[in-house]
Glycosyl transferase family 1 domain-containing protein (Aspergillus caelatus), 191 residues
Amino acid sequence: MDAGMNTTFPKLLIYHYGPSRSSKSTLIYDAILSHIETAMPRLRSCIYVMQIGPPDQLWNTLLTKAKVIIELSMCEGIPAMLLAAVQKGKPIITVNEMGQFSFTKGVDNILFFQKGDADTIARLLTDLWTDPQLSELLLPGPRRLRDEYTTVGNAVNWLFLAAEMSRDSNTVEPEGKSIFELAGQGAGLCV
């Protein structure tokens, strides 16, 4: 790289989810800082490591300003952080296992990689800035999630199930349909 370049390099934010005061998270945090210090001292000034709790305004601000979201592993349950990134329309690079969630189907701003494959992550990042088709993902613009994947959709699902199960001798047989779809049919909104 030419030392005379006056280019502002992007910052890499390493975000660790979890309680910031637990012994396990402190070990992870210290290991990340130690690795940066010993393995990549020249990049140290371009990397920021932080821990934050569940999705909140800080997370919302980070997502709003981010150019790309990289998720290196799968958390337990539905990844609220990933859902928020999809809604913001940010390009997301994540592990193949995230493809099991229905809200990732048909979403064009998610790129998948095999867990631990650093070369693929690097290639996808490079492609995002150099491939004309992929670089369109970097353009701002929120994408709207279907209602069934939002908090309101989740509430509809639970209310439908509660209403159906509270009726005498009534069982819910989805027959391959989503609960949201069944709720819509029950309300006369879907055929």
Notes: The radius of gyration is 21 Å.
